[in-house]
Amino acid sequence: MADTKQDVFPVVHWFPGHMAKATRMIKEYVKKVDVVIELLDARIPRSSANPVISEVVGQKPHIVVLNKADLANPQATKEWVAYFEKQGLTVLAIDSKTGKGNKQLVKAVERLAQPIIDKWKNKGIRSRSVRTIILGIPNVGKSTLINKLAGAAATRTADKPGHTRGQQWVKIGKDLELLDTPGVLWPKLEDQRAAARLAMTGAISDDVYDLESVMKQLLNQVNEANPDLLAERYKLKPEELGDANQLLESIGRRRGCLVSGGIVDLEKARRIVLADYRNQKLGNLTLDGVNEEPLATEDDTKHDEE
Ligand code: G4P
């Protein structure tokens, strides 16, 4: 039977006051830079986007970076890259944990900055380094990326006498500096589908959402993407398959998640499946589909009213 319960019930929200403050602060940061790097999770490029990102970025040159591409479905990542390119955006898929794609990122930012440098030259303005910032929701990999880029930069500049690394700006390329503090934006918690996917990928703390509802959605998505995968992984017989509830019950039984009376400890079964998804045991599953209808969010509504 189809499940109608949709709410993920996040109990921690970004309140309007926090959002307004974060927006103000990041707008101030953005004023100081020439190019903006927006970091998204390659598994959920739509759900991991901040609802007011375009307002925050304004007219600044902007690059979309799909991080954690190592965890996403490669074909889906290609589709997402094409999707953003079609919107006229510069886009790149990277894995900032290993640093794969970081060089291309630096090059892409330098390319986006070139017209600005040319303009300075034409106006006879003394050229300074081009500056950039990384923006994104919590856990999308901002610090990992900054550390990787800054680490590489530190090695490059270490042997230059008198060259000390600034407190705030890190040199990451030829005439390119990165703000070493990321801009933290809030996620789309009001959009229940996005909230569930943020929970699945670990972007929302495990204490603040309804695991039952999230896991139903995850099981349905895994099943839809690859109907044989759960049966193979958990060695389920045909009669043990079914909807998300039946699957969970069967997985729990197979994995020995039993409490007294032979009842399945569903909570334990849910945690096993969630850990398996996060540890790549259920494949490289991209949860956001390029062709899915985006849901209207309460955030959008609130924002329109401001
Ligand atoms: P944030 O600053 O945006 O909040 O995110 P942060 O860099 O702290 O990264 C959040 C988690 O995502 C970290 O895992 C980090 O290692 C992981 N991560 C970041 N980029 C990538 C990537 O491209 N691929 C993969 N597979 N993981 C990535 P963690 O479990 O919280 O920490 P740790 O165990 O890795 O130290």
UniProtKB/TrEMBL annotation:
* Residues that hold GTP according to the record: 67-70, 139-144, 183
Q: Which GO terms describe its molecular function?
A: GTP binding; GTPase activity
* Superkingdom of the organism of origin: Bacteria
Task: Name where it mostly resides.
Answer: cytoplasm
Q: Which GO terms describe its cellular component?
A: cytoplasm
- Domain annotation CP-type G: ranges: 19-187
Keywords assigned by UniProt, alphabetized: Cytoplasm, GTP-binding, Nucleotide-binding
So what does this one do?
A: Required for a late step of 50S ribosomal subunit assembly. Has GTPase activity.
Q: What is the protein name stated in its UniProt record?
A: Ribosome biogenesis GTPase A
